[in-house]
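ARCHIVE RECORD
Type: protein–small molecule complex
Small molecule: calcium ion
Source of inputs: curated submission
Record status: active
Notes field left blank by submitter.
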Amino acid sequence: MSRVLIVEDEEAIADLEKDYLELSDFEVEIANDGIEGERKALSGEFDLVVLDLMLPGKDGFEVCKSIRDAKNIPVIMVSAKKDDIDKIRGLGLGADDYITKPFSPSELVARVKAHLSRYERLINSNTKPGNQMIEIRGLKIDKTARRVWINDEEKQFTTKEFDLLTFLAENPNHVYTKDELFREIWDMDSIGDIATVTVHIKKIREKVEFDSANPQYIETIWGVGYRFKV
Ligand code: CA
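STRUCTURE (tokenized, with ligand):
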């Protein structure tokens, strides 16, 4: 499910936008000022930002600029004045779209949908046809390019973390002991022991799991080892 961040200080407007987006099955959060909005937008938890221009704390121009410096998620800027839109364009802040108040909520929903599908196509085009892919729920592994995404957000893995995750994902529902995994992924000569496996599993979980204490992908089978759940 795509997550949308609304940065808007007028509560009634923010609530209306939220209601409509939720009706279209988006997960929505509201930030009431520019500082909180910027922090949330940069957190990596959102797929799109609806950003009001006039905001307390930091205005929409500044917030848009810092999002653009760090992320390529779509940003739809909202303004009460048509003149502002020319200004936004003129500044070249890299907003993906502009919408003037008052607008109909359904127009906003349509634009959010359009930008998200364009963005998803962009993300998917990063994976080349012919590459060997593993896709399990929100987890996507490109074996050829050795890249990993969780819910379309790319995560960085070390060589061994990647090898271990891929091995488990390719052999789902099979319980492996730490010994077996160590022999499989590490050379026999390599320095380390089965504790290395535990450390690597922990690091992988930090990247792929929403809640490491309640893993959705790599499950601990107490006293035995691990298994990749499907
Ligand atoms: Ca405002």
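CURATOR ANNOTATION: The two ends are 19 Å apart (CA to CA).
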